[in-house]
Amino acid sequence: MDAEHKTKDRNAHVIVAGAGIIGVCTALALQRDGLRVTLVDREAPGMGCSYGNAGLLHAGGCIPLATPDSLKKLPSMLMDPEGALRIAWRHLPALSPWLLRMAAQARPDRVAHNIRALHALLKPARHLYDKLFRQTGLQHLIRSGGELHLYRHQASMQAAQWGMGVLREKGITVQDLDAASIRELEPALDKAFQHAHFLPDSDMITSPHQLTQGLANYFAQQGGTVLRGEIRSVRPNPSGGTDLQVDGQTLHASSLVLSTGAWSGQLTQQLGVRVPLQSWRGYHIMLPRGDLSLRRVVVDSDHHVAVSPMVDGLRVIGYLEFAGLKAPADSRRSHSLLKSAQRLIPDISGQITSAWMGHRPGTPDSLPVIGPLPGHPSVYCAFGHGQLGLTLGATTGQMIADLVAGRQGAIDPTPYRVNRF
Ligand SMILES: Cc1cc2nc3c(=O)[nH]c(=O)nc-3n(C[C@H](O)[C@H](O)[C@H](O)COP(=O)(O)OP(=O)(O)OC[C@H]3O[C@@H](n4cnc5c(N)ncnc54)[C@H](O)[C@@H]3O)c2cc1C
Hints:
By secondary structure, the protein is of the alpha/beta class. It folds into two domains: 3-50 and 209-276 and 366-420, 3-Layer(bba) Sandwich (FAD/NAD(P)-binding domain), CATH 3.50.50; 59-204 and 277-362, 2-Layer Sandwich (D-Amino Acid Oxidase, Chain A, domain 2). It contains 13 helices and 21 strands. The protein has helices at residues 3-8, 21-32, 68-79, 92-104, 108-122, 125-136, 154-159, 161-169, 179-185, 208-221, 264-270, 332-344, 393-405, and strands at 13-17, 36-41, 56-57, 85-87, 142-144, 147-151, 175-178, 195-199, 203-205, 225-228, 231-236, 242-246, 249-253, 255-258, 278-287, 297-300, 305-310, 313-322, 354-362, 369-373, 376-383. Strands 4, 6, 7, 8, 15, 16, 17, 18 and 19 form a nine-stranded mixed beta sheet that branches. Strands 10-2-1-14-21-20 form a six-stranded mixed beta sheet, with helices on both faces. α2 (21-32) packs parallel to α10. The longest helix is centred in the N-terminal third of the chain and has 15 residues, at 108-122. The protein is globular, with a radius of gyration of 21 Å. Mean pLDDT is 95; it is low at 1-8. Bound molecules: flavin-adenine dinucleotide. Flavin-adenine dinucleotide is lined by residues 18-23, 40-43, 47-50, 52-56, 58, 230-231, 259-261, 263, 282, 284, 317, 358, 360-361, 383, 385-391. Residues 18-23, 40-43, 47-50, 52-56, 58, 230-231, 259-261, 263, 282, 284, 317, 358, 360-361, 383, 385-391 line the site of flavin-adenine dinucleotide (FAD).
């Protein structure tokens, strides 16, 4: 079937499973191609991981989790009770095969490949979002201003030089700042910060939830269907396509997109394909902004904690926790996030207005899974975006629309295929 024909198939009904930022952007891209699209989620759009992220549209997010340096630091980070990384020991048997795969990705040739593949996705990301913002009228949610990575000592700045060097090689602007320049950009920060890396080309979304919700509303206004329900089973239909059990009803999809974030492995498994996906759990607390001025996302690189100025207050973000999808959130995290925020910004409010934990969908090589599911040519994967899901929403949507239409897109999808594992 040629691309034109595929796109214009009047009977085509695409179901997009999962209404996080990835699913919503994908549904919109498919709708733009003239397809009949239903978006299914057990919750309202944008209530999963896409609800609580730091809001960064990363200019320089191409450093994967697995590098020789990160593996070296792993034991000391795990031993530190106040550390940003935690493994729930009860989860270790289930996690171990994934960890071994991740460790294998720290080989220099794999690191170089993963950096290249992430950079290829990140390069067009802002341009594709700009098109989407213009189309949907959501420009007011984007704020320019860059991101600031802060260090108390020369040694900790030195430790970050390798990653920043990689970004510079890729053409991303990284400026070295001294204490006076830091103060000029963000006067509210603690005076202990003597050094910083400034990435002026990163932008932020001031309400990730309003973004996903706004995009889903636009999709519905344009005739798309948003259906609330739990997808309980997915099964190939002998005459083609896929049948889904969504609570009490059966839906038929001529094409199905799996964008159920960290939960996607459960659905691929029903179709006989195992994908190594782990939840990289992260936390945030919200604090009132008061009259404190903060223009951009600031990162305490010594303690791996960030503060983002959101529309509804200051969001303090941190932690990478391996504890699976079922364990409850660790309530001690809120207090440690508050302590870290006070070390970063001494005058920050101490009143926590809400606390949240979410599941980043993480692969061993830090690359998302984008492409058809082996053995199921009409089922497409769009998950596993780890730390970059917000940034890569529009990019992933475009890539899936190209694949469904049989078009050759601007990005070669090979590095993200499912059967790379
Ligand atoms: C603390 C933190 C900070 C972050 N900061 C950033 C950042 O600054 N920039 C950035 O780019 N990224 C960031 N991320 C990552 C980003 O938030 C995620 O990569 C992204 O939200 C993943 O989007 P998604 O649509 O794949 O998943 P989700 O948003 O989790 O959406 C998946 C949806 O699938 C639904 N679902 C699952 N199973 C089923 C089922 N069986 N039936 C029906 N529905 C189902 C869920 O309800 C959910 O709504 C951060 C993440 C965290 C945790």
